Amino acid sequence: MSAHRHKRAPQRRHRTAPATLCAAALASALLAGCAGVTPDHGFAGVADSTRERIGATPRLAQDAAAAQELQEIVRAELAAPLTMDGAVRVALINNPGLQATYWNVGIAQAELAQASRLPNPALGFQRVSGQGEVEIERGLNVNLAAVLTAPLAARLEARRFDAVRREVGAAIERHALETRRAWIEAVAAQQSLDYARRVHAAAEASAELAARMRGAGNIAGLDLAREQAFQADAAAALARSGRQVTAAREKLTRLLGLWGQDTQYTLPERLPDLPDAPAELRDVERLALARRLDVQAAKADAEATAASLGLSRTTRFVNVLELGYAGKSERSAPSMRGYALSLELPLFDWGGARVARAEATYMQALQRVADTAVTARSEARESYLDYRSAYDLAAHYRDSVIPLRKRISHEVLLRYNGMLASTQALLADSREQAGAVNAYIDALRDFWSAQAALQAALGDRIDMPGAQPMPPAANRHEDHQ
Amino acid sequence: MTSRRNFITGAAMAGAAAVSKAAMGAVPEAPQQSSAATVPPPPPPNGRPYNPVVTPNGWSLPWRMKDNVKEFHLVAEPVVREIAPGMKANLWGYNGQSPGPTIEVVEGDRVRIFVTNRLPEITSIHWHGQLLPNGMDGVSGLTQPPIAPGKTFVYEFTARHAGTFMYHPHADEMAQIGMGMMGFWVTHPKDPRQHAVDRDFVFLLNAYDIEPGAYTPNVNTMLDFNIWTINSRAFPGTDALAVRKDDRVRIRIGNLSMTNHPFHIHGHRMEVAGTDGGWIAPAARWPEVTVDIGVGQMRALEFTADAPGDWPFHCHKSHHTMNAMGHDVPNLIGVDHRGVARKINDLVPGYMVMGDKGVSMGGMRMPLPENTLPMMDGQGPFGGIEMGGMFTTIKVREGLARGDYRDPGWYAHPQGTVAREWTGPAPEPVRAAAAPAAPDEPVANVKRGDGHTMHDGH
Ligand SMILES: [Cu+2]
């Protein structure tokens, strides 16, 4: 039985029948009975949920053979220009930091398995000799407290295991988002470099022509110096653009976890084209509430607190709360770092205060769920609006600015044909057109980045038909004629 | 359109004329002309006889006689004028065209002219050069109230002196003349034999600033005009002046542009026979091949067409004989484009090197902005004439019929009368020894043509 299938089972049971210790114990026993270490170190469940949410499957490099296999997958992925999704796939199986995080699941699963087992009975043997007498004591000791608290311990470990899997899932999603953004930045930087080159080439041609004109005696030194100064500025901008490419690419390389030969991977020449239409999401808030990991974690916490409350009421003498909430951290990353179990004798304290505290803690958990939900709704709205306005801006460039720039270039060329405009005017227009295309690339980059952020905020994939790679001619000058 | 002919042949008040009789009451019909073709002149249907003039790319305005007064009707209105095939302009003019129709009267005629204003602003008409009562001089504000839009004014005076005149607004002149409001006026002598010639052409010189790709002249332009025209036509849109050999030819030119135009004839000598002030006594005339026509002036030039052929007749300011060219285009003459042309072509596909060997397009035709005439696109029997603007031809032919003004086609040169390529050995030119250039003089150079006329970079 795989671990993840009973992550909710005991809690649900306590919700429906919270008043009996027997039920709690039974549930825990059931849980303990099937908890064990699985060959995948508990990672399969995490991988399944991630595939569904971000469209890529993280894989655990659990031994040399698996590592080899993953390496081959990475190499295959890197053989062709790396797509945005391909980058996420590589990162999720190749980033060593992420792999380290994956092992947290295995550790949690192992601890759950450990907690689910009764402690071994201890066989005692004592021999005491002196003054000619030998006393031998034999005894079989069982840690009664451990036996009594084992089901509870297992239950708490199960929750911890559940939380760790959520944490790892969140880490994977964060890494996927970062990788997407880095990929977008790297491709955009490359494209911008291409346009910096064009601008520089135009400035260079203009300066060269000016030098020829100077040589022929047709212009003054002042005009030549102006053209040369423009070229010098363009060269500086080109160098700056080159630095940007290096920085963006290295960031992506780090996220992909690549080194050595593998860093020679190639990226597509262009960002994917803008989809024909933006995704129409009717109810982003509901989507976020249903799918976000932090919302799920807060809910799970509240449910667990409810269960603990019932437990506290019935047991009174078992210090569940302390262990339940020892080391509880922030709303967004609930975690239990450890616990201690103790069984008290009800001589002085009949547990009333503890129950009150359990109730207060439960109320607190409920408010935390509400807080998480409010934040999730707001973030969903914000990122959706950001996504839509980023789409509109990019579409404005695609549908208005770029066609107008092309129209202008066409008209300037016609004027040049009629000797109504100069070569310099043509080159200046070519630079301006390059600038407009560059602004479009920026807008497109912002759109894809906003889309990635929206996916993260909703905890869901947004697949749009028509998101094809940009055709080669779309932002070139070939469309002049 | 109501043509002049059916106006004259009795359907005078009929047709699709824009000003309806009912609206105008006793005002005569205002005939319209929609074509920029030259309308050959018919003899006068009534009144005193005269030898009519020909308005190239224009027409003369019909009249009606009423109580022994010649009544004309001019309608000032926006018009679309074809400057040349391939280019139209939104102008203001009279009765469908700019310039307006030529008015022809005879010395001593009593003339009544109705002027209807269909412009969006006030106007008036000044009868340039006429001696008339002060109140008929057409200066808005000074001699009359302006004619408001929609209103009709009437001018009445006697054409006292035979001669060459013009009409144009004297209200908001810069805009209205800049938009093409002008027309020719000829007062013929009482005796048709006096000053009689075989062919009598009249035209006005005007200029417009029409941005390439645009249609309406910029009326705020003061000097940088780019379309130089004869009767609001630019070569190759100007009709040739067809002339029978040995005809006595008169060309009357009025200048309503903002600069002078030295008009130059080929193959003939001409003399100035008349000015704004009237006819010059024959003994006082002197021969010329170029006559400068100042701003606001009129000149009547005469010559005997004794040399058959196709002879240019044009303004000698060279930028007036080409159509729109950029005023800020840098000089590329002598600039070596090798290498750099390819670079530019990478950035601007479709780029072609031009101007490095001069501005001649060598017959190259490239797409231009809409409604834009090529700079020097006139074509002749031997290739590109490389002229535009204020350029026309006088086609002198044997045996043309009197009154036949149709273009006779290209001149057929008699054997051996056309310049030809010399294929024999060329004599060595004698040159003075060149002084050695100082080392710090990089820009003084001499480049001679090597016979190539094609442009690289494409
Ligand atoms: Cu001129």
Q: What is the topological layout?
A:
The complex is a heterodimer of chains A (481) and B (458).
Chain A: H1 9-16, H2 21-34, H3 43-54, H4 64-79, H5 84-94, H6 96-116, E1 122-130, E2 133-141, H7 144-215, H8 221-256, H9 284-291, H10 293-315, H11 320-325, H12 352-417, H13 423-458
Helix pairs in contact in A: 1-2, 1-10, 2-6, 2-7, 3-7, 4-5, 5-7, 6-7, 7-8, 7-10, 7-13, 9-12, 10-12, 12-13
Chain B: H1 4-8, H2 21-24, E1 64-66, E2 69-84, E3 87-94, E4 103-106, E5 110-117, E6 126-128, E7 152-158, E8 163-168, H3 173-178, E9 183-188, E10 199-208, E11 227-230, E12 241-244, E13 248-255, E14 261-265, E15 270-275, E16 278-279, E17 287-288, E18 290-293, E19 298-304, E20 309-315, H4 340-347, E21 379-380, E22 383-384, E23 391-397
Parallel strand pairs in B: 2-5, 4-9, 10-13, 12-23
Antiparallel strand pairs in B: 1-2, 2-3, 5-7, 6-8, 8-9, 10-11, 13-19, 14-18, 14-20, 15-16, 15-17, 15-19, 20-23, 21-22
Bound molecules: copper (II) ion.
Organism (chain A): Massilia forsythiae
Keywords (chain A): Signal
Family (chain A): Belongs to the outer membrane factor (OMF) (TC 1.B.17) family.
Secondary-structure element order of chain B, N to C: HHEEEEEEEEHEEEEEEEEEEEEHEEE
Which parts of chain A are unreliable, with pLDDT below 50 for 5 consecutive residues or more? 1-34, 320-338, 465-481
Count of the separate structural domains of chain A: 2
Helix content of chain A: 55-70%
Question: From N to C, what is the helix and strand string of chain A?
Answer: HHHHHHEEHHHHHHH
**In CATH terms, what is the fold-level topology of the largest domain in chain A?**
Outer membrane efflux proteins (OEP)
Helix tally of chain B equals: 4
Q: Which ligands does the model contain, each kind named once?
A: copper (II) ion
Main-sheet strand order of chain A equals 1-2
Average pLDDT for all residues of chain A: 79
Strand content of chain A: under 5%
The CATH architecture of the domain at 63-192 in chain B:
Sandwich
Shape estimate of chain B:
globular
Main sheet of chain B, how many strands, which sense, barrel?
7 strands, mixed
Structural class of chain B: mainly beta
How many β-strand stretches of chain A? 2
Give the C-level CATH assignment of the domain at 63-192 in chain B.
Mainly Beta
